[in-house]
Design brief:
Helices cover 40% and strands 32% of the residues. It contains five helices and 29 strands.
């Protein structure tokens, strides 16, 4: 039993083993089959891809053949184009050389054209320059001719006017003014200026004093003219409608007045060589004796018009204008011959060639004039840096700031007064002449304002500088219009007609274009 069971068991085990082996073998076969199938699938896929690749390769080969053919065709075309380009390059190079040659020709032509243009421009500029020079020369010649014509007309006017033909004289004088003014000539040229002042009737005269006029002055308050004489006359004058009104402030022959001064307040001071100082204040007057002063002859203000220096031959005194009291006197170790002003202070000239600036009674300087002879007149100009010395013999010395001296000769007798007005120097003398000098001219020559038959003792400008008042030894008072604009205006009003053609040809000239005097 047990054997059978063992056999059964063994058989069972074998069977199970066989089954297991069979199952395992079957499983292994299946895996193999699956693997083979998988490999087959892969091979089939690879075959398919290989076929596709072969087809693609064949297509690519065909495309390559096509591209090769196209490339060869393009290469042939490129070779053809290259040959064409070479030909074009050769042609271009030839054209470039031609262009360069043409450019060189053009540049040469342009340079020649520029040279011709510059030559033409130079010729044109030279022609313009010569034309301008010719025009300038003609203008200068015309200007000089017309200025000369103005002088000629002035000389003709002066002589014709004195013959009594005043109308023609006035016309010629006005024409002289127009030509001289328009062409930049000097209206103070003697022939022109004298004709203008004569025809404009610029002088007015009044016989006012019995004695010799020793001094004239302008009152800063009233504007009236003050005059004193050696006959003790102190007069105040005013002009109304070309008529002189004279107020006789003092008329006493016991006095011999030498100088007159008017203060800013209106008070009037007249000094007599007798030592009397007459003071007129409004309608009242009084007389005081200036003691310790020998033969006083001059009055000079000090300290901006607050004080008055009374000057005698050997001494000076200081007067307070507010109180009319003598503040002090001083004796001097020299003889005073003449007094003037410099740097707003009195300036004294002695008989030994010295001059002395009075800053105060205690401060009086001592200098030398450096001139031969006696100084009888003096003036200075701060703006022009000039000083002028009038001498006893009629000579005038003009000295600039560097000390250079210029001798002015025009007067024949003692110079009595000098006065600057800008660049003009005015002078009067016992020879009866009132002259003025253009100090900026290279050659300073005198121009005569007027000639009197009597000594000119003093002169003064009007406040507006348009007139000059003069006093004469015979007692005559004169006023002269010296303003050229006013003279020309007065003269134009006196000219009533134009020249006739005959007058123009005779006096002016046939070749001068006719000009109207009356517009």
């Amino acid at each position: 039993m047990k054997r059978q069971e063992v056999i059964i068991c063994v058989m069972g085990v074998l069977l199970l083993s066989t089954m297991a082996i069979g199952l395992y073998t079957n499983h292994a076969n299946r895996e193999r089959i699956n693997e083979l199938e998988s490999q087959l699938s892969v091979l089939r896929a690879q075959e398919k891809r290989s076929a596709v690749d072969r087809r693609v390769s064949k297509q690519m080969e065909q495309i390559a053949y096509g591209q090769q053919a196209l490339s060869e065709e393009r290469s042939q075309e490129a070779i053809h184009q290259s040959e064409i380009a070479k030909k074009m390059t050769i042609l271009s190079e030839a054209e470039r050389k031609k262009a360069i040659e043409a450019q060189g020709t053009a540049e040469k032509a342009a340079a020649e054209a520029m040279a011709a243009y510059q030559m033409e421009e130079q010729q044109r500029n030279e022609a313009d320059r010569q034309r301008r020079q010719a025009e300038h020369a003609k203008l200068v010649a015309d200007t000089l001719n017309y200025i000369s014509l103005g002088r000629t007309l002035g000389a003709q006017s002066y002589s014709i006017y004195q013959t009594g033909e005043t109308e023609l004289g006035n016309m010629l004088a006005y024409a002289s003014y127009l030509y001289t003014q328009d062409y930049g000539g000097d209206l103070y040229t003697p022939s022109v200026f004298q004709a203008l002042t004569q025809s404009a009737d610029s002088r007015r005269s009044w016989s006012s004093h019995k004695g010799s006029i020793s001094c004239i002055n302008i009152s800063p308050k009233s504007g009236n003219l003050l005059t004193v004489s050696t006959y003790g006359e102190l007069f105040s004058h005013s002009i109304h409608d070309n008529r002189m009104k004279t107020d006789r402030l003092i008329n006493d022959r016991q006095y011999c007045f030498r100088d007159v001064y008017a203060s800013k307040s209106g008070k009037c001071y007249a000094i007599s060589s007798t030592g009397h100082l007459v003071i007129v204040d409004g309608s009242s007057s009084r007389v005081m004796i200036v003691e310790k002063i020998d033969k006083p002859f001059s009055l000079q203000d000090m300290n901006d018009g607050k004080q008055l220096l009374v000057i005698g031959e050997n001494s000076v005194a200081l007067l307070d204008i507010n109180t009319d009291r003598i503040l002090g006197t001083r004796r001097l170790p020299f003889r005073i011959m003449y007094s003037s002003r410099r740097d707003y202070c009195p300036l004294l000239f002695d008989n030994r060639g010295g001059m002395h600036l009075v800053k105060s009674l205690a401060d009086i300087t001592n200098e030398r004039t450096g001139l031969e002879g006696q100084v009888t007149a003096f003036a200075s100009s701060k703006n022009e840096h000039l000083a002028a010395y009038g001498m006893y013999d009629g000579t005038i010395w003009l000295i600039n700031s560097s000390g250079k001296k210029n001798k002015l000769v025009g007067h024949l007798s003692q110079v009595t007064k000098l006065k600057f007005n800008g660049k003009r120097l005015y002078s009067s003398s016992y020879d009866g002449k009132l002259l003025f000098w253009m100090t900026n001219d290279q050659q300073i020559k005198p121009i005569t304002l007027f000639q009197s038959s009597s000594w000119l003792t003093d002169f003064v400008f009007s406040t507006d500088k348009d007139y000059i008042w003069t006093g004469e030894q015979n007692g005559t008072v004169n006023v002269y219009l010296i303003s050229l604009p006013k003279i020309a205006n007065r003269l134009s009003q006196k000219v009533k007609r134009d020249f006739t053609q005959e007058e123009w040809k005779y006096y002016v000239g046939k070749g001068i274009p006719f000009r109207k005097l009356k517009e």
